[in-house]
Fold each of these.
Amino acid sequence: MTDIVTPSFSAPFSEILALERANLNAWPSDRTLWDADWCLRLTPGARSRRINSVTAFSPEDDGDIATRLARMNDHFRSHGKMPTLRWTPLCPSALTQHLGASGWRKVAETIVMTRPVDNRTGSEPGARTGRVGDAEAGGLNEWVRKLTEINRPSIADAVALRSTLACVVPASKKLLIEADDGTPVAAGFCVADGACLGLFLVCVDAAHRRQGHARSLLAAALAFGAQNGAETAWLQVEADNRAALDLYAGAGFRERYRYFYLQPDWGRNQ
């Protein structure tokens, strides 16, 4: 048995539900299966847990847990994936208790932060902010290539990323800052889905950090959100990423809730 400690949260369920729905649209999976208010997402070619996990969208949907969970686990195994549940405050307490009693363990925690969409991103004294160029003309493949120069994921992860972003339906924008010689130094991606503006993949090359580039990306993303009618900007950051948390807090983002992943305590983490 595992004692699963769930974090407190300040956001109402209605806000959490809106952000979780926006997350589905902004970061689509290759395959999706709904079982009442449980959503199974599978992307066999990707390592990302977000698109290879089950998320519950109602704290009231706690019927026939053992049978439904076994069926979900079979889907994971048939695609070569570790059974994974993505816990949010919308997860039924009975489901959390069942997984704890079954020995599932917590493997990661992420903070969801929000702020209003406006032009107040703040600035660092003396920062040399770069101009966010037009990354749309080069297309998705070229932008991912430049992103990989900054972030250097594996080839398999880059292929999965292109596939994921190509499936985004709401309005989106690829952000890129390049040095004078054309070397990419910072990048990001944002999705405007109704009232929600999601920010993803914000990264700055190690040799060009603390020069205001991340704030320039945030400002460009917020401007894009405002142009597309978004009211709330949101992002997700790993709970142990202190530098990113400080950056986003300084730009006006505040924690609203957290989520984490649960997996059976056997096999290797995928």
Amino acid sequence: MNRRILLLLPLAAAAVIAAGCGGASDASTGDGGASNGSTKLSLVAYSTPQVVYDDAIPAFQKTAAGKDIGFDQSYGASGDQSRAVAGGLGADVVEFSLEPDMKRLVDAGLVAPSWNQNAHKGFVSDSVIALVVRKGNPKGIHDWNDLLKPGIEVITPNPFTSGSAKWNLLGAFVHGGLPFVKALLTQHVKVQPKSGREATQAFISGQGDVLISYENEAITAQQKGEKVDYVIPPDNILIQNPIAVTKDSKHPQQAQAFVNYLWSAAGQKLFGKHGYRPVDPAVAKQFHFPTPSNLKTIDDLGGWDKIDTQFFDPDKGSIAQIEKDAGVSTAK
């Protein structure tokens, strides 16, 4: 199998690495010790924010609104999680890496079209792209162009399963357009794991020289004692993570109360603690995240409908074609 696609980690090593990063490996499920309660909510989320929910769920359960509420939790690659819910996986609350994964559930009638009609436009956290390197930055990585140095091996997930990967490649596009993305993928990316968390595991296990990832994932790795540094490139994109209560939730009031807690100052501080940029401006001021000099938004690039078709459509997308030519699966 093409080495760009295949990533096999020994199960024991993967378990150790996942524990070291404070989160789940791909498609993990369980209650996270939060199953007790007369009302049970099902949370389905993408892979990296489990570290936040490890704190947020117990904190919510200590509030009046969260009393006697338990949780089932599922974490995995954002696209896979969205497709699982669309295919019948029960969920009361869903959080994804990017808006198209939420739109899939709107189109399926599982999330209300009004999910984003609030003060935060439906987003519970923000982030930016980080270039994660070994401690001390031995390869001298300071900007996107350094990823194209001879011999540099880069890890980024597969954009057809991972929301993180789409953000990563859009950040690369902001810097150098499609020619840069093509050079990066065809000459320097040797493995493309399924999710952002699996990509972190691969890097921490010793693969690659640079990991393209969320800023929050780099911070989480450092908080867990991993020997990594990271660079925030000046050409960057604002990552926005959507959250919603499903229309068929059996406990809509309790589910909404949990989402409201995540939007509260207390909940937003927990996101900030783990390296996410709070969407509450007042809370965001309490943290000191750097502002990239050329920070673009999805709207600056034409919106998700345009971007998904232009870049990631499996049949005609320009990045999809680059991946196909490199032997990478574009199957969703």
Amino acid sequence: MNNADRPILTLKSTSQGDPIDDRPIELGVYDVLLPCRQFAIDHKVAEVGRVSLTAEFVLRLLKSVDGMSEDDVAAFFGFDRRDMSFVLTEVETQGYVGRQDGRLWLTTIGQALFRDGSSHPEIFEVERRQETIGFDLVALAPQDRRFLDDFERRLPELKLIDPAKASSATRRVPDAFRKFYTEITSRREPSATPKRSLYSIDNVVAQERFSSTVRISVCSTGLRPSIAEPDLSDWRPEYEREDRSLIIEAASRFVEELKVSRRADDRDAYQVLIDLAPEFLKDFTRRDGLSAERYYREALARAGDVRADRPTVPVLGSLFTRENTRRLFDIADYGMRAVSEPSTLCVWIAPQTPFWGATNSLPAILAQIKTRILAPAAGAPGEVENATIGLIAGKAAKHIEMAFDNIGTCDAPSFPPALEILLAPRVLIAAIVNAPIGLPNGAAVPLGLISFDERVVARAQAYVVDRIASFSISDEMCGKIRTDMSNSILQADSDVGPA
């Protein structure tokens, strides 16, 4: 055999993924508030394009030295005969210039262009206007004002890159208005944009502050899952983001604040996954617990559609991403087929990660759970009341309080800090560990499973019921949770996780 024909033997890479799997990963989605302010701007606009810039300079020259010879005008500007003929045709057609004895004179109409003794001809018809324009206080770029609901008003706010510039925004608005004038007018008067130009800015008055939302997708890659960057493509198109680089910088700083450190009790969180779905995770279970990096590679390769014969699927990334939200409700549809009596509540255990749930996807998912999964409460036909329960370590953030019907808090919960569980009794369970992968510090990589398997759901119910009493919820609600979760199709067949 020729040496060139011999196969080359190589060792399989022990890194977190093969190069072919170094695909983009969406770790999470956040909606943050962008501080903005409205400004009343007095300005003038003028019709453009009636004469060329060259013709304007000829008019200004004749205003200074009226009666110049055609040859002197041509020499002054360096025109040849063809250029001179073109310019004179333009100004003569408009009636601004007349010829006499080889000399050029401003006509009465041409003289009238120079109003109030100005040396600049007012070629255009000038119109005074006042517009109220919203600008963000980070990049000082135009931002439309829209209504924010109660949840959105409680979202975290992007931090200012330069607070001093924000405080002097009124002084800086004229330059920003000039820079973005085309963008502003194209939205407000699309047909007038090519016909009008900004003539002057006369006065700027700061008005009320407001906030807008910016959607930030936190993205990484298969080989470096805990090194994350912001993606703002859902917020604005690329050509607009180029003029808002300071907002991109502020978003990068926000992503930096999402970093967490690997903890010793992350192993307890991964152990809960094993205890909930030992059959599904048997190939990734070692003597010391779950092989998180091996399971990560499997989730990266296998994440796909849900099927009836696949009751448990791996999940990579937050439940708030589009793909995982779709996957969650695909699981819910299968789970509902086997349920004769849906639950009247769901429980969501939040992980102890920065800004968890700071996205419009949280109330949207809870609303879908109410309409697609939960049964109406007794005595309230068609209406689900007090159905969504959030269990939070420490003090709940304002946006979380607004999203859930009920909040239970606990200073020392018996859940591992990295663990997140969404449980709709008898229907589905989503269990996710939010911890760095491959690095001691970095972005949390949500890794777990979603299941409608009756055994997995029953184990999750037993796990939650055993720990619910430590949270600050009423005895009535605690009893309702216990009762609802005791009506399982199957009883849990083992204890789950550390007490």
Amino acid sequence: MFKIGDFSRLSQVSVRMLRHYDELGLLRPAHVDEQTGYRFYAAHQLEYLHRILALKDLGFTLEEIGGLVRGGVSPEQVVGMLTLKRAELRRELDEGTARLERIEARLAALGRGGDGVAAEAAHGGSGPDVVLKRVEPQTVAASRGVIPAFTDGTRLLLGPVLDFLAEHGVRPTGGGWLYVYHDPDYRERRIEAEAAVPLLRPVPPPPPGSPVTVYEMPGIEAVASAVHVGDVARVGRAYSALSRWIGANGYRIAGPSRMIAVRRNPDDAAAAVSEVQWPVERAPLPSPATP
């Protein structure tokens, strides 16, 4: 028998952790002295402890380990758990690799040195920061059509949606709506666009012939997103930042862009806040050159 301190030195596991395993029922001492409360461990328990440590190293939680080491799961379940853990670790590895690539791209944009970082801070940054995120599905009231120019989107598309919602007591103010630009390339005239307002509560369906539809706008697995603060007429700066980021980080555009009116103030264009989103996916690796 080994006292807990000796067993701790032998196993290289702290006394605190051994006591924690005891509390969880993962590894009970072989004997506890009734007079002193001292814990004693048997030599064969070292093998059992190593099994716990090996499973912990694979990323399993202590709760999952309890079921595995006590024999509470079948071999098929063990295979399933290991398969899921492998998929989880591969996903984490892919995310870490993508994050590393973004860091490398950011360093390249800053000149790969402290001077570049200082210059960015001194000049207010080289452009809006870009983040990669998921967009959840949302129910919207929307109107879609071809507009003569970007400036016509509010009048021709958003206007009918706001009028429809007002009829049902919904009055979104200050922003929150979004525009989706469906053309596959950039156009300054005859733009296929959609204006949509997310709905926080159900509304009756639009009447037949209405330009407004109510539907669930699909989510997007990954969008590159940039925030523009100021006059929406200068939102092109955010689009430029997205284009550079997408190219530098090994992605490609995978759907129509969205512009969200986060905040609007008709009396102060400079106080506007817009978020620009572009769906993206990993660009395929180039084929090796044929000798």
